[in-house]
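Audit log entry. Action: structure prediction of a protein-small molecule complex. Ligand: pyridoxal-5'-phosphate. The ligand was supplied as SMILES and no pocket hint was given, so placement is left entirely to the predictor. Protonation state taken as written. Sequence taken verbatim from the request; no trimming, no tag removal. Recorded inputs:
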Amino acid sequence: MNNLTKSICDMYGIDEKYISLDSKIENDLKDVFSRISDIAMYNQAKVHKAFLDNKVSEVHFAKTTGYGYDDVGREAIEKVYADIFKAEDALVRIQFVNGTHALSTALMCSLRAGDKLLSITGHPYDTLMETVGNKEKQGSLVWHGVEYNMIELVNNEFDYEKIKKEIEENTPKMIFIGRSRGYSSRKSLTIEKIEKVIKYIKEINSDITIMVDNCYGEFVEKREPTEVGADIIAGSLIKNIGGSLCEIGGYIAGRKDLVELAAERLTAPGIGKECGATLGKNKEILQGLYMAPTVVKNAIMSVTYAARLMQEFGIKADPAYNEERTDIVEQIEFNDKDKLIKFIQGIQAQSPIDSFVTPMPWAMPGYTDEVIMAAGTFVSGASIELSADAPIKPPYIAYLQGGITYESAKLSILSATVKMLGESNE
Ligand SMILES: *Cc1c(COP(=O)(O)O)cnc(C)c1O
């Protein structure tokens, strides 16, 4: 059991009344946690099998420098990733500076002037909207002559009628799907829903390339978007799939021709996947991947606990603790600027790194509103570690994610909640 005890309460200045609340919550979460464990078991088996099938070896940890030709470790990593995603190929590189870079590469590699991009989950994530851009925004897709259209979700479901009409009247080259809600109040989309819409699109026109932003989604369900028809997906190594060990990087997986195009966009035409020294990072990527199903399990348990805890104080948390999940994000609606800021600061104050720092609302590149972020993480900004971000605007929503060990994340969440309620003994 992971129960709160009197000695822990003493250590952290938490009122002892939380001991009984905590054990009630733990009890309520039993069934949900067993469902989460079942998914982790399956995903661990999938990852383990990919290591065996690809004969991952100590040789693959070797460092390459310079051009990075014939990096056998890099090649093994990309085969393992492809297997896990049941994709034809994968590009897993430390040369991707973040998730946005990997996603942007996947978007830009195959869209040319005159092509149409259609997003069917509302606008993509804030930072990706810069890639979409406009006529004035140098280097963006629209500036390059790509036409961009967007269809909103209706009651958190795909708008099938509009999608059909748009495909028939204004056929897009690529359709974009955001699996995770990211920083938006819409629901995340389960693999089952993504599967259904992809089938629908492909029946109308099988030539359309379907891309899924898979950030925050890896290993939350038993299947990934590439297993249900997505042509190309991308994500970040400092989120789920890096298992908290990766210090940098991104990945793209999917159809071989698209992965090749993406590689040539990341490096240069004619170079593609052949170059890219790994600088000794291969072990980190492999071990991180190996740990990822378990780390993701801890992250989901952590936000599930937060969801159930918030319910106790009448604070709206979405998804509800017992709802099916497809990402590691919990949306907590404080409806109160002061409570929101206190909660975020409380998470930071209980983080293993930089606990003594007080985060303040700040303008961030790529985001429209001021943002406050708690990220007391081993890897700077890694949101597979317990972290919380919030744009400063009503209804004062925090997006909580991560937690690499359930025990410590739960303690941080409890402490932050106590602080938010103004009950802290500190
Ligand atoms: C994190 C994230 C991205 C990419 O963001 P980076 O901070 O550049 O890694 C894109 N989409 C979603 C939904 C995300 O969560």
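Audit: result stored. The chain has twelve helices and twelve strands. Residues 60 and 73 are 4 Å apart (CA to CA).
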